[in-house]
């Protein structure tokens, strides 16, 4: 997706928010009709019937007629496509769109006729019922079939084009790299390099803690609470922008340098779930400690390091060259002799094999095992002891 920052005027922002409200209302109304279906009723109305109902509603309600019919009909088309994807099993069930969270709408049509280049750094896009809105030219505008106008929680407006860029070609040198993802070290490479995803600085973390304390003292619904929430959202958006920038740069670098990229096969959605409550058998209605706070801190660390985003972008940029290896005991297995016992892991960062005495960084040792494609079973036995020798020297060279 190619995205550009928009800079609408105050009047244009109000008009854009009104368009977002109309698109969200039409989407939620279509979702309500679809959700009311039961086996004893007939089929729910499709796009054609809903488009006819939209025309009748626009003739009755002036506030709906004031919006763009193109935007509202496209919201119905998007919902119909979302339902098709859900029944095909490729996407999740369509959900409700909320104010302040889902602010945006899509426009279908060749953007070349709706975009005018003002100078080397600026251009303008024609939005229905809004007019020409300026946006910053940070790259060439792609030739896409549609574009989407969105507003994030911080209040920034963006113009996004749905395009699929071509994958990065392999260098052709036969180089293989293993990537071990962690919380302390975001990504450790089998070459010995340690990569860390940037987050908030110490000053920003102190500022975030102060804002959260101030938020707890604010009265709900007050203007002061809204200002504090906006300040907190800006800090979180800043951390998210830094994480996305790091993911893009790291994935591009790996796709350009290596022919095969091997990562751990992790189910991040399952790993970041909340712990289930443990009922206390001695106290009916009571619960045992389940380390919920510690698990929440671990979940925040996993998500802040962009584990899933990094692999997703690698699969996009290095299509067909990303291999997933089972993660079982890769951090406890010696990359030299293959001895696998929990005592090999001295600490979070230290690794010392009790059999051969090999010392290395624990994350780098795991990355070397991942690069070699070594997987162990539940009994901590390697499938082939011979394959544990350092045959591919390029996978462990620094």
Architecture overview:
With 398 residues, this protein is an alpha+beta fold. The chain folds into 2 domains: 2-161, no CATH class; 170-197 and 249-398, no CATH class. The protein has helices at residues 10-35, 47-60, 62-65, 69-88, 202-217, 223-257, 268-271, 292-304, 307-317, 362-371, and strands at 2-6, 103-108, 115-117, 122-127, 131-136, 146-151, 157-161, 176-181, 187-189, 194-195, 260-264, 278-279, 287-288, 322-325, 350-352, 359-361. The two termini are 34 Å apart. The longest helix is centred in the middle third of the chain and has 35 residues, at 223-257. Helix 2 packs antiparallel against helix 4, helix 5 (202-217) packs antiparallel against helix 6 and helix 6 (223-257) crosses helix 9.
């Amino acid at each position: 997706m190619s995205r550009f920052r928009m800079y609408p005027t105050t009047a244009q922002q109000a008009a854009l928010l009104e368009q977002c409200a109309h698109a969200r209302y039409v989407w939620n109304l279509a979702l309500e009709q679809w959700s009311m279906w039961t086996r004893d009723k007939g089929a729910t109305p499709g796009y054609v019937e809903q488009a006819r109902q939209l025309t009748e509603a626009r003739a009755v309600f002036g506030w709906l007629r004031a919006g763009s019919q193109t935007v509202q009909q496209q919201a119905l088309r998007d919902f119909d496509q979302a339902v098709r994807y859900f029944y095909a099993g490729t996407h999740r069930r369509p959900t409700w769109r909320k104010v302040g969270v889902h602010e945006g709408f899509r426009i279908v049509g060749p953007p070349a006729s709706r975009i005018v280049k003002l100078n080397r750094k600026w251009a303008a896009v024609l939005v229905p019922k809004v007019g020409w809105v300026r946006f910053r030219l940070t790259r060439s505008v792609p030739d896409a079939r549609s574009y989407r106008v969105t507003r994030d929680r911080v209040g920034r407006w963006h113009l996004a084009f749905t395009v699929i860029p071509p994958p990065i070609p392999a260098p052709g040198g036969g180089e293989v790299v293993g990537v071990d993802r962690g919380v302390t070290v975001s990504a450790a490479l089998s070459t010995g390099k340690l990569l860390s995803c940037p987050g908030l600085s110490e000053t920003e973390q102190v500022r975030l803690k102060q804002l959260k304390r101030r938020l707890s003292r604010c009265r709900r619904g007050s203007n002061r609470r809204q200002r504090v929430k906006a300040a907190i959202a800006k800090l979180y958006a800043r951390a998210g922008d830094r994480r996305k920038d790091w993911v893009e740069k790291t994935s591009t670098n790996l796709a350009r340098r290596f022919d095969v990229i091997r990562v751990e096969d992790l189910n991040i959605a399952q790993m970041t779930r909340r712990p289930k409550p443990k009922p206390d058998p001695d106290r009916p209605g009571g619960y045992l400690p389940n380390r919920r706070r510690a698990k929440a801190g671990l979940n925040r660390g996993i998500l802040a390091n962009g584990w899933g985003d990094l692999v997703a972008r690698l699969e996009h940029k290095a299509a067909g060259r990303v291999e997933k290896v089972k993660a079982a005991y890769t951090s406890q297995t010696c990359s030299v002799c293959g001895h696998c016992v929990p005592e090999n892991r001295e600490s979070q960062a230290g690794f010392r094999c009790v059999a051969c005495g090999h010392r290395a960084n624990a994350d780098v040792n795991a990355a070397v095992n991942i690069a070699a494609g070594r997987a162990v079973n539940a009994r901590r036995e390697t499938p082939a002891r011979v394959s544990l020798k350092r045959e591919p020297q390029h996978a462990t060279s620094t």
